[in-house]
Amino acid sequence: MKFNFTKMHGIGNDYVYVNCMDKELPNPGEISKAVSPRHFSVGSDGLIMVCASDKADAKMRIFNADGSEGKMCGNAIRCVGKYLYDNKLTDKTKLSIDTLSGIKHLTLYPENGRVKEVKVAMGTASF
After folding, report:
1. Are 4 and 10 in contact (CB under 8 A)?
2. Taking a C-beta distance cutoff of 8 angstroms, is the pair 36, 106 a contact?
3. pTM for this one?
4. Which run of H or of E encompasses 4?
5. 36-54: per-residue pLDDT in tens?
6. Rg for the chain, CA atoms, rounded
7. Which helix (H) or strand (E) holds 109?
8. What secondary structure, in 3-state letters, does 58-94 show?
9. Other C-beta atoms within 10 Å of 73: how many?
């Protein structure tokens, strides 16, 4: 299978990001396992699908290197905000992103047409 992707990292968490606004990838867990091995593939912590959402500006689906679907990653969602803006999928600087752990709110800080910083409201930590 061939598809376009972007590899990004936020403070060391590196993921393969795919624009799935029009169509989601089939078998994303298997694709995540295929693109994650370091030295033998793209090498990443997993796969992020940037998808359309009917309740937010976009939806983030995150798949770990072992193929399991994760709920949330703060570093990854900040990259999703940058990905959406820098690829002209939005011109908003305040975004809502649907995740398995609920809707998260991002504030983007662009400079010269590209996002330089993203803040995300993660909610209260619970242990």
Report:
1. no
2. no
3. 0.94
4. none
5. 999 999 999 999 999 999 9
6. 14
7. strand 102-111
8. EEEEEEECCCCEECCCHHHHHHHHHHHHHCCCCCCCE
9. 21
